[in-house]
Write a structure and sequence with these properties.
GO terms for molecular function: transmembrane transporter activity. With 397 residues, this protein is mainly α. It has 19 helices and no strands. Helix 12 packs antiparallel against helix 16. The protein is globular and about 65 Å long.
């Protein structure tokens, strides 16, 4: 369990570093190298017979490779799509829902038939496909390397301010977003981690618990497609209201889990939870593009994912500790619904703040040089207007 937890934490913890490399070298190189590193980590894990080395090969090497391959797949979409960016993100992220539904059943068959190590080798095929897919990324926005090197092709290390673009935190709306999302995630993942154990305690082995995972995966995929398309019709930073709604419903559904004394009611809760989970995930990149622009979106997403790694890692263990102390998951689920509600309330202020920022930028006075050029242009226009009537009189008109 710790190997898997370390792996998931590293995927998000490495995101700020990935964003810096994406800005320096572009989406294609980072994605290809990341997939290759992930392939090496997964393949080397399949030859180990003890668990200790897995902390490095699977928990660190494989996870870091996945992190380097994942983030460019979100950034590259903004290079090609503007009007339909929400729908495109929904289609792309729906792939993970498809595998959430199908992969557990496939893994069970593979492990039962060819054992764990050959299963890891079979999964290397997917990583190799990801390696090949990385070559299709053709960035349209120039990266930092291209800007610094110019046409000569010589790579000069850019200044530290350009490598770590902390200037995005000067954008107040982004700062609020980067605070609200992690605040909500302290309870967001608790149901996903502890739901199966709660079902076993409440209903025993008489219910098919895999159905809940199936419901979460299917409706999450549907939510990503539907809400991704809906986001395209919502102008500007108002897309954030979709995330507010998703946090509200996920917090509410978390609180309703202990109240479900019938398995069918728990299925309904999981259907709604998966739907709004898809909403939260698919519009993350479009919101980042709205708040900071296409040029800075890579590091904006990277810093956010890095901040997300802390509550994702801390929240579920706290819920497990509460269960050990109290003997039931009920209080843990009730408390897990509070952070998404608080995070959603924080995000409500972003559209108003973003609009005020835009108004301030429009109201800024132009610099002296621009003003001087404008005055020169106006003076030439006045001279032309006064000279034309004189010429017309001289010519006899």
């Amino acid at each position: 369990a710790w190997v898997g937890s370390l792996s998931m934490g590293m995927v998000f913890f490495c995101s700020p570093i990935v964003s810096i490399f994406t800005d320096l070298f572009g989406c294609r190189k980072v994605a290809v190298v990341g997939a290759a590193v992930g392939l090496v980590g997964l393949l080397s894990s399949s030859f180990l017979s003890t668990i200790e080395p897995l902390y490095f090969t699977y928990g660190i090497v494989f996870a870091c490779g996945c992190s380097f391959a994942y983030q460019p797949s979100l950034v590259i979409l903004g290079h090609y799509f503007k009007k339909r960016l929400g729908l495109v993100n929904g289609i792309v992220t729906a792939g993970s829902s498809l595998f959430t539904v199908s992969l557990p059943f496939l893994l069970r068959v593979l492990i039962d038939s060819v054992d764990l190590f050959n299963t890891l080798r079979a999964l290397c095929i997917l990583m190799f496909v990801l390696f090949l897919a990385g070559f299709t990324y053709k960035p349209l926005v120039p990266n930092t390397k291209d800007k610094e090197g110019g046409k000569k092709g010589k790579f000069k290390l850019p200044p530290a301010k350009k490598i770590c673009n902390f200037s995005i935190f000067k954008v107040l709306s982004y700062r609020i977003w980067a605070l609200g999302i992690p605040a909500a995630l302290f309870g967001y993942f608790v149901p996903y981690v502890h739901l199966m154990n709660h079902v076993k305690e409440r209903f025993g082995d008489s219910v098919p618990e895999e159905v809940l995972l199936l419901c979460l995966g299917i409706t999450s995929g549907v939510g990503r497609l539907v809400f991704g398309r809906v986001a395209d019709y919502i102008p500007g930073a108002k897309k954030i209201y979709l995330q507010v709604a998703s946090f509200f419903f996920i917090g509410l559904m978390s609180m309703m889990i202990p109240l479900c004394n019938v398995f069918g009611a728990l299925v309904a809760v999981c259907l709604f939870m998966g739907l709004f989970d898809g909403c939260f995930i698919c519009i993350m990149a479009p919101i980042a593009f709205e708040l900071v622009g296409a040029q800075d979106v890579s590091q904006a997403i990277g810093f956010l994912l890095g901040l997300m790694s802390v509550p994702m890692t801390v929240g579920p263990p706290i819920a497990g500790l509460l269960r050990d102390k109290l003997g039931t998951y009920d209080v843990a689920f009730y408390l897990a619904g509070v952070p998404p509600l608080i995070g959603g309330a924080i995000l409500c202020f972003i559209p108003w703040v973003h609009e005020r920022q835009k108004l301030k930028e429009r109201a800024k006075p132009v610099d002296g040089e621009t003003t001087e050029k404008m005055l020169e242009h106006e003076s030439t226009l006045v001279l032309d207007m006064t000279e034309k009537p004189a010429k017309e009189l001289d010519s006899g008109f």
